[in-house]
């Protein structure tokens, strides 16, 4: 299988071209790269060891003139060697700290995730060459590689060996994104005013807030790490069980405030995530065969049945409405509902 080598690009080529010890003849960057690629550029030093015929090379460069120049020189050199090449700009990734933190690293994460997915769709093995670029850029490229199960390589221009961090066998825990999927999709959809984000975060666990950061533009975004987790989560197979809601359960959701609605949506996601009937350990069977989830001490409950592998949620009710809750405990029956009126939970 051919590889798609995705390289972050720094400016070592320009620095070496201006260094008399590396470039005593005063060659231009392109000429220096052709004469001695392994000394001329950290990125080329790695790629000349990693690339094999048939591989595709993608160069991700910063949102700077120097970054674009270096990527262009590298692309030109490797294209002359017969490799398919492509350059991509990382929007907002520059020397200016404000844009670098609030926008650039998130752009890097999204671009890396997109390139990894594109390579796999094309039947290629993605490989990250995190040799070049800002230190933070290298760190986040490594994190993305770990989360996506992609090997990450690194080499310093003065070193002779490539260090490869293999694809991680560790299974990442995406339960937070599963339970609060609505919030993560909402904040990632478009810039959200900080006041709105903070209001929603009040109804969510502190662990969600750790993945959000406020920006100087008055909006809040997923942090670069949060972006990396979300992109990796989107690439996971959807193992959720199909779940449908009765008209009554849908009406309940529609009338709830954001905090309570989020709690119920999280509860439903936990219910549908249970594999091989794992949810049975957290359910209580009522008279008539209706199940209550979860059992034990919980403010919010779902009353449901399982039919032919599908979960049908009959009602959503908790102890905040004790009278209705106790009534449902005694009287709810599957026969009271018409299955064709249920609607899928996305």
Number of helices: 15
- Written as H for each helix and E for each strand, in order along the chain, the element string is EHHHHEHEHEHEEHHEHHEEHEHHEEEEHE
Helical/strand content category = alpha/beta
Terminal CA distance: 36 Å
Strand % is 15-25%
How are the strands ordered across the major sheet?
Answer: 3-2-1-4-5-6
The fourth-level CATH homologous superfamily of the largest domain is Hypothetical protein VC1899 like domain (Restriction endonuclease-like)
The top level CATH class name of the largest domain? Alpha Beta
Low-confidence stretches: none
Shape: elongated
Number of beta-strand segments: 15
Mean pLDDT: 89
The CATH topology of the largest domain corresponds to: Rossmann fold
Helix % is 40-55%
Q: Compute the gyration radius: what is it?
A: 26 Å
Query: Number of folding domains?
Result: 3
What CATH architecture of the largest domain would you give?
3-Layer(aba) Sandwich
């Amino acid at each position: 299988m051919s590889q798609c080598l995705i390289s972050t690009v720094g400016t070592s080529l320009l620095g070496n071209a201006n260094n008399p010890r590396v470039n005593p003849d005063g060659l231009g960057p392109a000429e220096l790269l052709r004469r001695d690629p392994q000394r001329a550029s950290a990125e080329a030093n790695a790629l000349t060891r990693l690339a094999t015929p048939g591989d595709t090379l993608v160069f991700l460069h910063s949102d700077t003139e120097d970054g674009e120049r270096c990527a262009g020189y590298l692309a030109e050199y490797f294209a002359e060697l017969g490799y398919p090449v492509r350059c991509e700009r990382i929007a907002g990734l520059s020397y200016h700290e404000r844009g670098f933190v609030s926008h650039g690293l998130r752009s890097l994460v999204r671009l890396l995730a997109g390139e990894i997915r594109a390579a796999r769709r094309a039947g290629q093995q993605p490989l990250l060459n995190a040799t070049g670029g800002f230190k933070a850029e290298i760190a986040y490229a490594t994190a993305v590689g770990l989360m996506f199960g992609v090997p990450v390589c690194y080499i310093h221009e003065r070193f002779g060996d490539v260090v490869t961090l293999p694809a991680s066998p560790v299974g990442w825990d995406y339960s937070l994104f599963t339970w609060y999927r609505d919030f993560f999709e909402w904040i990632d959809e478009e810039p959200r005013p900080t006041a709105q984000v903070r209001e929603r975060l009040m109804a969510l666990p502190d662990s969600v807030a750790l993945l959000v950061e406020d920006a100087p533009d008055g909006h809040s975004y997923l942090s670069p790490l949060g972006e990396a987790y979300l992109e990796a989560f989107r690439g996971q197979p959807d193992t959720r069980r199909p779940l449908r809601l009765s008209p009554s359960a849908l009406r309940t959701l529609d009338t709830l405030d954001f905090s309570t609605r989020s709690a119920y949506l999280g509860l439903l996601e936990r219910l549908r995530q249970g594999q091989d009937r794992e949810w049975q350990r957290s359910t209580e069977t009522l008279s008539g065969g209706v199940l209550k989830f979860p059992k034990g001490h919980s403010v919010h409950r779902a009353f449901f049945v399982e039919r032919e592998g599908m979960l049908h949620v009959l009602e959503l009710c908790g102890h905040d409405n004790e009278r209705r809750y106790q009534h449902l405990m005694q009287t709810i029956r599957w026969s009271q509902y018409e299955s064709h009126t249920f609607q899928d939970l996305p």
